[in-house]
TrEMBL record:
EC class (word): transferase
Superkingdom per UniProt: Bacteria
Designated name of the protein: Murein L,D-transpeptidase family protein
Biological or metabolic pathway of the protein: Cell wall biogenesis; peptidoglycan biosynthesis
Organism of origin: Parasediminibacterium paludis
Active site per UniProt: 130 (proton donor/acceptor), 150 (nucleophile)
Length: 175
């Protein structure tokens, strides 16, 4: 098992630093992702907590707070998992995460009960990690938040993440 992880680590490093495409079979627990909103960074770690690569990212709103309601353009915070991967006509590739999950609903319902958000508010959905519009990767370089709550990075980086991270990979979004 350890040699398989070492092989997966080597393949990930090659995929992250070259145009090499990952051809192996990584398991959902071989990697995890931490997205730090305050640093505008997405970091990938292996199962042994070794840092592998960091990519710059941007979000929705300039307000980096936790997502409250549908349409607020904020990126949710918490622990999620990649639930689907697909090519995307506008943003290169799309790694869908399981927002809203049980943790998200719990925070949402507590905020409703406290009157922080309206009783008729909706939680939203369709959050993921994706690329940028064609020829607009400068938004990532300039830290221009433009999404509806998703995490966006350069297309070359989303291609590498798409090739390596399997469905089921844990994604932690924090501030």
């Amino acid at each position: 098992m350890k040699s398989l992880r070492n092989f997966a680590l080597l393949i990930f490093i090659l995929a992250a630093t070259t145009s090499f495409k990952y051809l192996g079979t990584a398991g959902k627990d071989d990697f995890y992702v931490i997205i730090d909103k305050s640093d505008y960074e997405l970091k990938v770690y292996d199962a042994a907590n070794n840092w592998l690569v960091t990519y710059p990212v941007v979000f929705g709103s300039k307000d980096l707070g936790d997502k409250l309601v549908e349409g607020d353009r904020k990126t949710p915070e918490g622990t999620f998992h990649i639930v689907a991967k697909r090519p995307h006509a506008k943003w290169e590739r799309f790694l869908s995460i399981d927002y809203p999950n049980a943790e998200s609903y719990q925070k949402f319902n507590e905020r409703k009960a406290q009157g922080i958000i309206p009783a008729n508010a909706k939680i939203g959905g369709s959050i993921g990690i994706h690329g940028t519009w064609p020829h607009e990767e400068f938004a990532v370089d300039l830290y221009q938040n433009w999404t509806m709550g998703c995490v966006s990075t350069k297309n070359e980086y989303i291609d590498k993440l798409f090739d390596v991270l399997p469905v089921g990979t844990r994604v932690i979004i924090q501030r």
